Protein backbone atom coordinates (compact mmCIF):
# COMPACT_ATOMS: atom_id res chain seq x y z
CA UNK A 1 0.00 0.00 0.00
CA UNK A 2 1.34 3.45 -0.94
CA UNK A 3 2.47 5.79 1.83
CA UNK A 4 -0.25 8.34 2.70
CA UNK A 5 0.21 11.94 1.64
CA UNK A 6 0.71 13.89 4.87
CA UNK A 7 -0.70 17.38 5.19
CA UNK A 8 -1.51 19.88 7.92
CA UNK A 9 -4.05 22.65 8.27
CA UNK A 10 -6.25 24.64 10.59
CA UNK A 11 -9.68 25.99 11.31
CA UNK A 12 -8.44 29.57 11.38
CA UNK A 13 -10.55 32.06 13.33
CA UNK A 14 -10.63 35.58 14.71
CA UNK A 15 -12.88 37.38 17.15
CA UNK A 16 -16.52 37.31 16.20
CA UNK A 17 -15.98 34.48 15.72
CA UNK A 18 -15.28 34.56 12.02
CA UNK A 19 -13.55 31.85 10.03
CA UNK A 20 -11.02 32.12 7.20
CA UNK A 21 -11.89 30.20 4.04
CA UNK A 22 -9.65 30.06 0.98
CA UNK A 23 -10.58 29.52 -2.66
CA UNK A 24 -8.36 27.35 -4.83
CA UNK A 25 -8.81 28.12 -8.54
CA UNK A 26 -7.39 24.76 -9.60
CA UNK A 27 -10.33 22.95 -7.98
CA UNK A 28 -12.79 25.87 -7.74
CA UNK A 29 -13.45 24.94 -4.11
CA UNK A 30 -13.63 26.62 -0.70
CA UNK A 31 -11.82 25.05 2.23
CA UNK A 32 -9.73 25.71 5.32
CA UNK A 33 -6.02 26.52 4.88
CA UNK A 34 -3.93 23.37 4.53
CA UNK A 35 -1.05 21.91 2.59
CA UNK A 36 1.45 19.09 2.30
CA UNK A 37 4.10 18.49 4.91
CA UNK A 38 7.51 18.95 3.27
CA UNK A 39 10.04 16.14 3.43
CA UNK A 40 11.69 16.19 6.86
CA UNK A 41 9.32 18.88 8.15
CA UNK A 42 7.52 18.52 11.46
CA UNK A 43 3.73 18.65 11.23
CA UNK A 44 3.51 21.55 13.73
CA UNK A 45 5.82 23.67 11.61
CA UNK A 46 3.90 22.66 8.49
CA UNK A 47 0.55 23.76 9.95
CA UNK A 48 1.84 27.23 10.84
CA UNK A 49 3.71 27.59 7.53
CA UNK A 50 0.68 26.63 5.44
CA UNK A 51 -1.52 29.14 7.26
CA UNK A 52 0.93 31.92 6.50
CA UNK A 53 1.56 30.87 2.89
CA UNK A 54 -2.09 30.53 1.98
CA UNK A 55 -3.50 33.50 3.89
CA UNK A 56 -0.60 35.83 4.73
CA UNK A 57 -1.67 35.61 8.38
CA UNK A 58 0.27 34.69 11.51
CA UNK A 59 -1.50 32.38 13.93
CA UNK A 60 -1.03 30.35 17.08
CA UNK A 61 -2.15 26.76 17.22
CA UNK A 62 -4.89 25.92 19.66
CA UNK A 63 -6.54 22.62 20.41
CA UNK A 64 -6.09 19.58 18.24
CA UNK A 65 -8.99 18.73 15.93
CA UNK A 66 -9.74 15.37 14.27
CA UNK A 67 -7.49 14.06 11.52
CA UNK A 68 -9.19 13.92 8.13
CA UNK A 69 -8.42 11.11 5.69
CA UNK A 70 -9.70 10.83 2.13
CA UNK A 71 -8.63 9.21 -1.17
CA UNK A 72 -6.53 11.05 -3.74
CA UNK A 73 -6.32 8.90 -6.85
CA UNK A 74 -4.72 5.61 -5.79
CA UNK A 75 -3.34 7.11 -2.57
CA UNK A 76 -4.75 8.40 0.72
CA UNK A 77 -4.35 11.94 1.99
CA UNK A 78 -4.11 12.39 5.76
CA UNK A 79 -4.57 15.94 7.02
CA UNK A 80 -3.93 16.84 10.65
CA UNK A 81 -5.86 19.86 11.87
CA UNK A 82 -5.74 22.33 14.72
CA UNK A 83 -7.83 25.26 15.78
CA UNK A 84 -5.73 28.37 15.17
CA UNK A 85 -6.31 31.96 16.21
CA UNK A 86 -4.97 34.85 14.17
CA UNK A 87 -2.36 36.94 15.97
CA UNK A 88 -1.36 39.32 13.19
CA UNK A 89 -3.19 40.32 10.03
CA UNK A 90 -1.64 41.62 6.85
CA UNK A 91 -2.65 42.08 3.23
CA UNK A 92 -3.73 38.98 1.34
CA UNK A 93 -1.82 38.41 -1.89
CA UNK A 94 -3.60 36.15 -4.42
CA UNK A 95 -1.48 33.48 -6.10
CA UNK A 96 -1.89 30.47 -8.38
CA UNK A 97 -2.83 28.17 -5.49
CA UNK A 98 -5.14 30.48 -3.51
CA UNK A 99 -6.79 33.44 -5.24
CA UNK A 100 -9.41 34.50 -2.66
CA UNK A 101 -9.67 34.73 1.11
CA UNK A 102 -12.91 35.48 2.94
CA UNK A 103 -13.86 35.84 6.60
CA UNK A 104 -17.31 34.45 7.41
CA UNK A 105 -19.39 33.78 10.54
CA UNK A 106 -20.10 30.11 11.23
CA UNK A 107 -23.48 29.89 9.47
CA UNK A 108 -22.15 31.49 6.28
CA UNK A 109 -18.98 29.38 6.41
CA UNK A 110 -21.08 26.23 6.60
CA UNK A 111 -22.88 27.23 3.41
CA UNK A 112 -19.67 28.17 1.59
CA UNK A 113 -17.49 25.14 2.39
CA UNK A 114 -17.19 22.68 -0.49
CA UNK A 115 -16.49 19.45 1.41
CA UNK A 116 -18.33 17.51 4.08
CA UNK A 117 -15.14 16.84 6.06
CA UNK A 118 -14.52 20.59 6.38
CA UNK A 119 -18.08 21.10 7.55
CA UNK A 120 -17.56 18.37 10.16
CA UNK A 121 -14.34 20.09 11.29
CA UNK A 122 -16.12 23.41 11.74
CA UNK A 123 -18.89 21.79 13.76
CA UNK A 124 -16.33 19.97 15.91
CA UNK A 125 -14.61 23.29 16.59
CA UNK A 126 -17.91 24.90 17.57
CA UNK A 127 -18.68 22.07 20.02
CA UNK A 128 -15.56 22.86 22.04
CA UNK A 129 -14.29 25.95 23.83
CA UNK A 130 -13.51 28.92 21.61
CA UNK A 131 -10.33 29.77 23.50
CA UNK A 132 -7.88 27.42 25.16
CA UNK A 133 -4.41 27.83 26.66
CA UNK A 134 -1.53 25.35 26.31
CA UNK A 135 0.07 23.45 29.18
CA UNK A 136 3.18 21.75 27.78
CA UNK A 137 4.76 18.97 29.81
CA UNK A 138 8.20 18.30 28.38
CA UNK A 139 10.77 15.65 29.23
CA UNK A 140 14.33 16.92 28.99
CA UNK A 141 16.33 16.09 25.88
CA UNK A 142 19.08 13.45 25.62
CA UNK A 143 21.65 13.77 28.40
CA UNK A 144 23.82 10.70 28.06
CA UNK A 145 24.04 7.74 30.40
CA UNK A 146 23.54 8.49 34.08
CA UNK A 147 25.81 5.60 35.03
CA UNK A 148 28.72 7.18 33.17
CA UNK A 149 28.42 10.57 34.87
CA UNK A 150 30.76 10.88 37.88
CA UNK A 151 29.79 14.32 39.15
CA UNK A 152 26.59 15.38 40.97
CA UNK A 153 23.57 14.31 38.92
CA UNK A 154 22.01 17.78 38.91
CA UNK A 155 25.00 18.98 36.85
CA UNK A 156 24.66 16.33 34.12
CA UNK A 157 24.35 18.30 30.85
CA UNK A 158 22.72 17.57 27.53
CA UNK A 159 24.82 15.59 25.09
CA UNK A 160 25.29 16.69 21.48
CA UNK A 161 22.08 15.01 20.34
CA UNK A 162 20.17 16.60 23.21
CA UNK A 163 21.40 20.08 22.31
CA UNK A 164 20.17 19.54 18.75
CA UNK A 165 16.80 18.38 20.09
CA UNK A 166 16.54 21.46 22.31
CA UNK A 167 16.98 23.71 19.28
CA UNK A 168 14.30 21.83 17.34
CA UNK A 169 11.95 21.90 20.33
CA UNK A 170 12.03 25.68 20.47
CA UNK A 171 10.75 25.88 16.91
CA UNK A 172 7.93 23.45 17.66
CA UNK A 173 6.85 25.08 20.91
CA UNK A 174 6.78 28.45 19.16
CA UNK A 175 3.70 27.25 17.25
CA UNK A 176 1.69 27.57 20.47
CA UNK A 177 2.78 31.14 21.17
CA UNK A 178 4.50 32.80 24.16
CA UNK A 179 4.49 30.97 27.49
CA UNK A 180 6.04 31.13 30.93
CA UNK A 181 8.91 28.68 31.28
CA UNK A 182 9.22 26.41 34.32
CA UNK A 183 11.91 23.81 34.82
CA UNK A 184 13.41 21.29 37.14
CA UNK A 185 16.53 22.80 38.68
CA UNK A 186 18.83 20.29 36.96
CA UNK A 187 21.22 21.32 34.21
CA UNK A 188 19.69 18.97 31.62
CA UNK A 189 16.20 20.43 32.04
CA UNK A 190 17.38 24.03 32.03
CA UNK A 191 19.45 23.43 28.91
CA UNK A 192 16.44 21.87 27.18
CA UNK A 193 14.35 25.03 27.48
CA UNK A 194 17.20 27.53 27.12
CA UNK A 195 16.86 27.93 23.30
CA UNK A 196 13.17 28.63 23.75
CA UNK A 197 13.86 31.13 26.53
CA UNK A 198 16.22 32.99 24.21
CA UNK A 199 13.65 32.95 21.40
CA UNK A 200 10.96 34.34 23.72
CA UNK A 201 13.36 36.59 25.63
CA UNK A 202 11.77 35.14 28.74
CA UNK A 203 13.17 33.94 32.07
CA UNK A 204 13.22 30.32 33.22
CA UNK A 205 11.87 29.68 36.70
CA UNK A 206 13.12 26.57 38.48
CA UNK A 207 10.76 24.65 40.71
CA UNK A 208 11.76 21.91 43.19
CA UNK A 209 8.30 20.36 42.86
CA UNK A 210 9.36 19.08 39.43
CA UNK A 211 12.99 18.27 40.28
CA UNK A 212 13.91 14.62 40.57
CA UNK A 213 15.30 13.80 44.02
CA UNK A 214 13.56 16.80 45.59
CA UNK A 215 9.92 15.97 45.01
CA UNK A 216 7.24 13.31 45.27
CA UNK A 217 4.27 12.41 43.08
CA UNK A 218 1.89 14.19 45.47
CA UNK A 219 4.02 17.34 45.66
CA UNK A 220 4.43 17.54 41.89
CA UNK A 221 0.70 17.04 41.34
CA UNK A 222 -0.26 19.64 43.92
CA UNK A 223 2.00 22.19 42.25
CA UNK A 224 0.71 21.31 38.78
CA UNK A 225 -2.88 21.95 39.85
CA UNK A 226 -1.81 25.35 41.18
CA UNK A 227 -0.43 26.15 37.73
CA UNK A 228 -3.65 24.98 36.06
CA UNK A 229 -5.69 27.26 38.32
CA UNK A 230 -3.62 30.25 37.18
CA UNK A 231 -4.58 29.58 33.52
CA UNK A 232 -1.32 30.96 32.08
CA UNK A 233 0.26 29.36 28.98
CA UNK A 234 3.11 27.26 30.37
CA UNK A 235 6.01 25.10 29.25
CA UNK A 236 7.18 22.79 32.04
CA UNK A 237 10.38 20.77 31.63
CA UNK A 238 10.86 17.85 33.98
CA UNK A 239 12.04 14.23 34.23
CA UNK A 240 10.81 10.85 33.09
CA UNK A 241 10.30 9.89 36.73
CA UNK A 242 7.82 12.77 37.11
CA UNK A 243 6.02 12.89 33.76
CA UNK A 244 3.85 9.80 34.08
CA UNK A 245 2.64 10.76 37.55
CA UNK A 246 1.60 14.29 36.62
CA UNK A 247 0.01 13.39 33.26
CA UNK A 248 -1.96 10.57 34.89
CA UNK A 249 -2.88 12.73 37.86
CA UNK A 250 -3.96 15.66 35.69
CA UNK A 251 -6.26 13.49 33.57
CA UNK A 252 -7.83 11.85 36.60
CA UNK A 253 -8.31 15.16 38.39
CA UNK A 254 -10.02 16.75 35.37
CA UNK A 255 -12.08 13.74 34.32
CA UNK A 256 -10.16 12.83 31.16
CA UNK A 257 -9.20 9.38 29.95
CA UNK A 258 -5.62 8.62 30.96
CA UNK A 259 -3.45 7.89 27.90
CA UNK A 260 -2.50 4.26 27.44
CA UNK A 261 1.13 5.35 27.81
CA UNK A 262 1.47 8.65 29.71
CA UNK A 263 5.27 8.47 29.74
CA UNK A 264 7.58 10.36 27.38
CA UNK A 265 10.85 9.57 25.70
CA UNK A 266 13.59 12.15 26.11
CA UNK A 267 12.74 15.31 24.18
CA UNK A 268 9.05 14.44 23.76
CA UNK A 269 6.21 16.54 25.13
CA UNK A 270 2.51 16.47 25.92
CA UNK A 271 0.32 19.48 25.18
CA UNK A 272 -2.85 19.75 27.25
CA UNK A 273 -5.09 22.38 25.69
CA UNK A 274 -6.92 23.74 28.70
CA UNK A 275 -10.45 25.12 28.74
CA UNK A 276 -10.21 28.06 31.17
CA UNK A 277 -13.91 27.91 32.02
CA UNK A 278 -13.54 24.42 33.54
CA UNK A 279 -10.80 23.94 34.19
CA UNK A 280 -10.88 21.01 31.79
CA UNK A 281 -8.72 19.41 29.12
CA UNK A 282 -10.17 20.29 25.72
CA UNK A 283 -7.57 18.22 23.85
CA UNK A 284 -4.38 16.31 24.59
CA UNK A 285 -1.61 15.61 22.08
CA UNK A 286 1.89 14.20 22.17
CA UNK A 287 4.88 15.15 20.04
CA UNK A 288 8.46 14.16 19.45
CA UNK A 289 11.07 16.46 17.92
CA UNK A 290 11.71 13.60 15.48
CA UNK A 291 8.18 12.31 14.83
CA UNK A 292 6.66 14.10 11.85
CA UNK A 293 3.00 13.41 12.63
CA UNK A 294 1.01 14.25 15.73
CA UNK A 295 -0.44 11.76 18.17
CA UNK A 296 -3.75 12.91 19.56
CA UNK A 297 -4.49 11.04 22.75
CA UNK A 298 -7.78 12.61 23.77
CA UNK A 299 -10.06 15.24 22.32
CA UNK A 300 -13.53 16.52 22.87
UniProtKB/TrEMBL annotation:
One example GO MF annotation: bis(5'-nucleosyl)-tetraphosphatase (asymmetrical) activity
One GO BP annotation of this record: ATP biosynthetic process
Record PROSITE patterns: NUDIX, NUDIX_BOX
Pfam families: His_Phos_1, NUDIX
Residue intervals of the Nudix hydrolase domain: 3-126
Domain of life: Bacteria
Keywords: Hydrolase
Family: Belongs to the Nudix hydrolase family.
Protein known as: NUDIX hydrolase
Organism: Actinomadura rubrisoli
Amino acid sequence: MAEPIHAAGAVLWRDGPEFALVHRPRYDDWSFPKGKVDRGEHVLRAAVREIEEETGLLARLGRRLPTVTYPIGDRTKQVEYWAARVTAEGPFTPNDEVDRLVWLPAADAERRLSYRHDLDLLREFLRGPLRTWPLVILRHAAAGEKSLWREPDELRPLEERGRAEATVLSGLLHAYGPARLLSSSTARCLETVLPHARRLRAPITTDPAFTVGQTSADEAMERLLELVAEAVPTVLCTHGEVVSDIVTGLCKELGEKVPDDPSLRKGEFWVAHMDPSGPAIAALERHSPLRKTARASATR
